[in-house]
Amino acid sequence: LPGTEQELRTIAKGLGAGESDLHLGAAATETSVKNTDLSVYNVVYFATHGLIADDIKGLHEPALVLTPPDAPDPNDDGLLTASEISEHLKLNADWVVLAACNTAAESKPGAEALSGLAKSFFHAGARALLVSHWRVDSEAAAKLTTATFEIQGRDKSIGRAEALRQAMLAQITEQPADAAALWNAYPAFWAPFSVVGEGAR
Q1: Three-class SS of 102-120
Q2: Are 201 and 158 contacting, i.e. CB atoms less than 8 angstroms apart?
Q3: What angle, rounded to 10 degrees, do the helices at 138-154 and 160-173 form?
Q4: In angstroms, rounded to a whole number, what is the distance separating the alpha carbons of residues 7 and 142?
Q5: For residue range 155-179, what is the model confidence (pLDDT) as tens digits?
Q6: Which of 106, 97, 129, 89 is nearest to 55 (CA)?
Q7: Residue 28, SS3?
Q8: What DSSP letter does each residue of 34-71 carry, written as one string?
Q9: Whole-Å CA distances, 147 to 43, 70, 111
Q10: CA–CA gap between residue 151 and residue 144 (Å, rounded)
């Protein structure tokens, strides 16, 4: 997504990650994700579009949208699906952030919540996830996630869930700079996200 580069760079800087740890734009491909040894990262962060089953024709499970190749093939069609995450990714991450729409959604219509992407990332080795329960506003999501990491970076004694709670409260109580900023306190902008899994320090 066009607006996510600054979000990712801010998070990466706070975590001490280098340029080689970022996969942006044309480098953010399904092949890149599958070929990177993700087990060496404590935090794995996706800032992109999230799809649920049947969002597009022929998609029968949730997926993260990545940069499509010039010539799609079965191994890289630009969609990192829930089944591919379970089968191909090997994680050892304290936290996987899915800053995208509907990442807590079910695997298919009518199934349990968290049975799609969330379950797949747990199978792959994540201990905690930051997921969304509905469509998110990109700007609001970036503000909330960067604030969450900043808060946790400042106070190592608090956990992921508490850092998210504080970031939400800050967004709700922030003095608006103009009339448009009044919307920041509206739940649609801060409430989609939740921490699942291990939320403690």
Answers
A1: CCCCCCCCCCCCCCCHHHH
A2: yes
A3: 120
A4: 6
A5: 999 999 999 999 999 999 988 888 8
A6: 106
A7: coil
A8: HHS-GGG-SEEEEES-EE-TTSSTT--S-EEE-BPPSS
A9: 16, 36, 32
A10: 11
